[in-house]
Each structure stands twice: as structure tokens, then as C-alpha cells.
Please model this.
Amino acid sequence: MVKRDVYTHGHQPAAVNQHAKRTADVCAQFVRPFISPQSEILDVGCGPASITVGLAEWAVEGSVIGIDVGDEILQTAQGALDDSGLSNISLEQASVYELPYRDNSFDVTYAHQVLQHLADPVLAIQEMARVTKVGGHVAVRDADYYTMSCSPESKMIDEWRRIYHLVARHNGAEPDAGRHLLTWFHRAGLHQVECSATAGVYATKEERENWGLSWADRCLTTSFPSQAIDYGYATWEELEAISDGWREWAANPDGYFQFINGEAIAAVL
Ligand SMILES: C[S@@+](CC[C@H](N)C(=O)[O-])C[C@H]1O[C@@H](n2cnc3c(N)ncnc32)[C@H](O)[C@@H]1O
Model:
């Protein structure tokens, strides 16, 4: 039986629409030197596939397969593929714990903001390495929620971060994943690992609205608030106050938010 984790964010529009703004240029830049026009790439946990499309533009004579456990999100992803006009991408429903591919299939196996949601990230990396060709690379990028901080300081956003940690850990996942990637790669048997980090910054009106208004909605309309209430970590009234806190921050021209994304890329030997 394939492991099935509880996905903290949920695939409701407030979360998916924010994820769909991501690009390969920003989120997979550390992988770019390892991708050639002929690369065969697997994008694990592709979500709405905005990054998948960018990877396919880089591997224009190769191919990209995006996989995800969610079926509805794959319909959203299919829309992104259709809009892209690219013919070198396909999608499949699958779990990272049991990838439906032979050993040695891909030049690059990539997962963006996925390991932070898994109860067994080491098993996931092992399975990603299995389907990667000898000489190919496994690449992962994940946020570290502990580093999420803002100005002006906001008690409500601090409270959001506290509750998010509790909910994600209740789900058996590690929200500070970014700092643990090297350890997880080593435990998965990958020892030739290059680590880097890039900061997420939201400081313009558009960026504040992308992040702040998304979280204002996500605190009320996604799986996150349902889980927070079901697990006993927050009441609806507290979540409404946190949502208001996000709106207040997003409306402030001084509003600034930052966090670290950990990145790790390993050669498969
Ligand atoms: C935060 S989203 C990231 C989506 C995309 N990679 C991006 O960065 O825009 C995490 C995705 O991982 C998927 N996911 C969660 N557990 C998974 C698993 N065991 N196997 C494959 N995908 C999984 C979720 O369904 C979700 O779409």
C-alpha cells in the first residue's frame, strides 16, 4: 500500500493560485546548469505545473513528466500545459514513494516545496534517486518556515507561523525542511551533494498582495484552517484575526517579508 500523507496546504484556489505564480527561472535556477536541451526530467509533486512548463522550455528537445498525487490539481496542471503550447510535457498521477518508472530513467529528478509535506522525505529521495540515471541529478528546494519573518512585526503573522508549525508537524511533516535537506540526502545514500539557499522576498505592492492576500484567504478557505481547528490548535475566531493580520500587513506600503529556501542537488553515482 502506497503511503498517503496529509497535505497541509490543500488544493483549494487560494493556495493553488499562489503556487501557480512560481517560475522555473526563480525556483529551479540552481538546477539550470544540470539541464541540457535534450534532458529527460521528472518534476515530482508538480502542483499547477507553472515550474514544469519552464523546465520543458529549457529541455526543448528533451521531455518533462510532471507527477502529483492529487487528481484535481492535475486538471489545473493540464490547463497550464495546454496554454504553454509545448508538446514535450506530460502529466501522470503518482506518488513519489512509488514512481511508475524504471531505474535509470531521468537525467534530472526535481521536487519543489514537496519534501516539507512528506512524512518520509528520505524514502522520497531514495525513490527519486532510483529513477535517476547514473550520472544524473536529484534536486530539491524547500522553504524553512522558521525563517519566515516580516516588518512591521505582526503578532498575528507570528501566530500564523506558530500554528502552521503545529499543523504541519501534526501531519507528520517538517515545515523547516530547507535546513534538513543535506541530512535527508545523506540518509538516502546520496553523498555528493551541493547545497545552496535563496531568499524569498515580498516587498512591492504586487508581491505583498501575492503573498499576504493569499495567506489571508488561505487561513480561512483551505485545508489549513480545517486542520488547525480539527487538531485543536486554533479557533475560527483566531483564524479570522490572523487573516485580518495578513490583510493589514499586505496593505502597508512598508510591509516586507522574507524567508530562506534550502536547495540541494546530488549526483547519482
Ligand atoms: C506546495 S505544492 C508544490 C507544487 C509545485 N512543485 C510548485 O512548487 O509550484 C506540493 C505538491 O506536492 C504534492 N504531493 C504531496 N505529497 C505527494 C506525494 N507523496 N507524491 C507526489 N506528490 C505529492 C501535492 O499534491 C502538491 O501538489
About this structure: The CA atoms of residues 175 and 237 lie 24 Å apart. The radius of gyration is 18 Å.
